[in-house]
Each structure stands twice: as C-alpha cells, then as structure tokens.
Design brief:
The chain is of the alpha/beta class. It has two domains: about 170 residues, no CATH class; about 210 residues, Rossmann fold (3-Layer(aba) Sandwich), CATH 3.40.50.150. It is built from 15 helices and ten strands. It has a seven-stranded mixed beta sheet with strand order 6-5-4-7-8-10-9, sandwiched between helices. α13 links the parallel β5 and β6. α2 crosses α3, α3 crosses α4 and α7 packs antiparallel against α8. The longest helix is centred in the first third of the chain and has 23 residues. It is globular.
Length: about 400
C-alpha cells in the first residue's frame, strides 16, 4: 500500500492510498455531479445553517477532494494545506467522512483511491511552535510563499471564481462565517428544543439557575435593578434574573430565539420583567435603551471579526451607568476552535478593549470547561477554554 501525502502538517492532513486502481482522476464536472441529500440534512441539523450554505460548502468540499486527487495523480511533491480560514470546508469534510461507506465509495468511484483525513499530531504542532519562536520572520515568509503557490494552484486548476471564494475577503469557507451563518439562520427548532428540555425542570423545581456563573456571583453581592443581556436567546440568564425581580432587556439576532424565550417567560410568569429585542449588535444602538446596573455579553464576542468586537465593546460601555458592571464570556484563543485559532479572543485583547472604554477588570481569566457544550453554529466539544471577565467603570479621576 502506497501512501501519498496531499496536505501539510500544519493544516488537516489528507493522504491517498492506492488499493484497487492505479492513480486516475475523474473530471471536475463528474465529481460535482455527486449528490448526498442525507449529508446536507445532517450538516444543517448539526450546525444550524441554511441549506443553501450547506450545499455551497459541499460543492467546495468536492472541489477540494478533486484537487487532492489531482495533486496525487500529477505526482506533485508540494503539499496542499487546509488553512485555518478554510475551517468550514473542513467541517463539511468531517461530516462527509461520518457517512463512511458512502465516502469510501465516492473516493473509489471518482478517484480510484481513498483520501484519508488525519489531524496534525501534537508533536508536529509543537515543532511548528518551536520554529515560530526561533525564527518567526523566516517561518512567516515560508508560509506566505506556500500560500501564494496554493492560491496560484487553485486558480489554475479550479478557476478565478473558486480562488476568490476560497481566499477572498468574505472568507466564506472560514469557521467564523459558518458560525455567523448559523446564528443568522434563526433556527426556530433549535430554540424550541432548548426550551422544551428545560421548562419542565424549571416548573417542577420552582427555581431557574443562571447559565453564566459570573452573573449569579454578581447579583448575589450587588444591588441590580435593571440588566441588559446581549446574546439573550442563548441562555437562561434572562429568565433567572427576571425570576428574582430584576428587569431584563435582552438583545439577540435570532428572532426565533427571542420569540421562544418570550413564550417561556409567559409560562414561568416572569414576562412582565422581560423585554426581548431582535437586533444585531453590529447595527444596534444600545445607548437608546438607557443605563443598566448589569450588562452581560455571553459567548458572543468571539463570533465577530476583531474590528466588530471593539465596536461591540464600545456599545456595551455606552449603555453602562456610572456604577455598572459588565460581564463577558467568550471562547479563548487557546483552543484551535473549529480549526480556526483566529476566532478565539485572548485575555489581553479583551482587557485592552475595555481599558480603552475606561473599564477596569475585577476578574479577567481563562478557565477550562470540560463538559460537552453546543450552541448555534458550533459543533460539540469535549472541552474548551473560556475567557471570563467582570469589568467595572473607572471612577472619575481614577
């Protein structure tokens, strides 16, 4: 059995093994004609994205697999790399492989060889980090040259339109784009499932617990009368605050999520305390909502691009009163989350954004969450690092 490497170690590694047939390749048109409705349906269900976006990702994934085979057939030594900004394509590849018999048949029918998928071993990641520390400039130049060769190869084999789609400014194959597509899908079934699972417990116990422990800590020691929850539809925080007599204004991009939580608030007899607003924080003017004692932005900032994050923090600060507390949780950059490390936020980045708005941290750290977790646009994970921050407005003259 001969193994031919077709992807580099720093991305996801694909190898081909020539078992039944000599190297050969189907035309791109033949490969793109392949359809798998069950795969599309599963991807939509797992990632909560529009079916049209799942179809688009599958087309690009088929192009990627065709390219891997073409690289093998041509005997090229230069490896192909799934770069971090191609994380959404990689997710679709993962999903395809789960249909193992179909994937094996697909590879055999179109390529005459199996295209394996192997994650980068920790040893090779460590070697890459060591080299980065020893010769950052040299490694960046080498990586840039590799990327240029890859872009040229993609343009040569797949055309300008595909190269633009893979490497253009919109980054439609990136994990953040995948997540934003999921959030904007407003998947009503997803939210209904979350509420349906938890309403019986809340009703029977007579107690609603916050999903965000920092919120529980703050309301136990601070006098909070009015709160703003950004990322309202994701958590039970708003319902728990309302159950304690605290007025809640919730802002979320998901109309289905907000409507579902409104119904839950009625079922739990806390509706008079909750106002749900459908809005994207990138376009919302939070200052129009008045001042708040407590502002919470939970598991949302990392979805945004860096410039959008800074703007969101400015909006949170503008909605704060003189003695307000702002709580933030976000995915940390310590994880290679969905194969896109650029998606996470560092402690330094989060602290600097609030410092510019004249807020000081009372708590700012990273902790590891071991329990499985899922949310719109995200895959399930055995664990991940989460940044936690409690920020208080600097006193005048301080």
């Amino acid at each position: 059995m001969q193994l031919v490497e077709t992807a580099a170690v720093r991305g996801q590694t694909a190898t081909t093994d020539h078992q039944k047939h000599p190297p050969h390749g189907s035309t791109l048109e033949e490969v793109l004609s392949y359809q798998h409705p069950d795969l599309i349906a599963r991807f939509v269900e797992e990632h909560h994205v529009p079916e049209s976006y799942a179809q688009e990702l599958f087309v690009e994934t088929k192009k990627w697999l065709w390219l891997c085979n073409a690289n093998s057939v041509e005997g090229a030594r230069a490896p192909l790399i799934i770069y971090p900004f191609m994380g959404a394509l990689d997710e679709m590849w993962h999903s395809f492989i789960l249909f193992s018999k179909d994937y094996a048949t697909f590879c055999d029918d179109f390529f005459g060889e199996f295209i394996h998928h192997s994650p980068t071993p920790p040893r090779e990641k460590a070697q890459h980090r060591d080299r980065l520390a020893a010769d950052e400039e040299g490694l960046r130049e080498e990586t840039h040259s590799q990327l240029l060769r890859f872009v040229n190869y993609v343009e040569h084999k797949l055309g300008q339109d595909t190269a633009t789609r893979w490497f253009g400014p919109e980054e439609r194959l990136s994990s953040p784009f995948l997540r934003r597509s999921a959030v904007r899908q407003n998947n009503g079934e997803f939210w209904e499932d979350r509420i349906t699972e938890r309403l019986p417990y809340w009703n029977d116990s007579g107690s609603i617990q916050c999903d965000t422990p920092l919120i529980s800590e703050v309301i136990a020691r601070e006098h909070v009368r009015r709160s703003l929850i950004v990322g309202f539809a994701n958590f039970a925080d708003s319902l728990a605050l309302a159950a304690q007599g605290i007025k809640v204004v919730g802002v979320d991009v998901s109309a289905a999520g907000v409507e579902t939580y409104r119904r839950a608030a009625h079922a739990l007899s806390v509706a008079p305390k909750i106002l749900g607003i459908v809005s994207d924080i990138r376009h919302a003017d939070l200052s129009e909502l008045g001042d708040f004692d407590l502002i919470a932005c939970t598991m949302m900032l990392h979805v945004l691009e860096p410039a959008e994050r800074a703007d969101a923090v400015r909006k949170l600060a503008a909605a704060a009163g003189e003695s307000s507390i702002i709580i933030v949780t976000a995915l940390s950059d310590k994880d290679d989350y969905l194969n896109d490390p650029s998606q996470g936020i560092s402690v330094e980045e989060l602290g600097a954004m609030f410092e510019r708005e004249h807020f000081r941290p009372e708590i700012l750290d990273t902790h590891y969450v071991a329990a499985p977790h899922s949310h719109p646009g995200g895959a399930q994970h055995a664990g991940h690092h989460v940044i936690r921050g409690i920020f208080r407005k600097n006193q005048k003259g301080g």
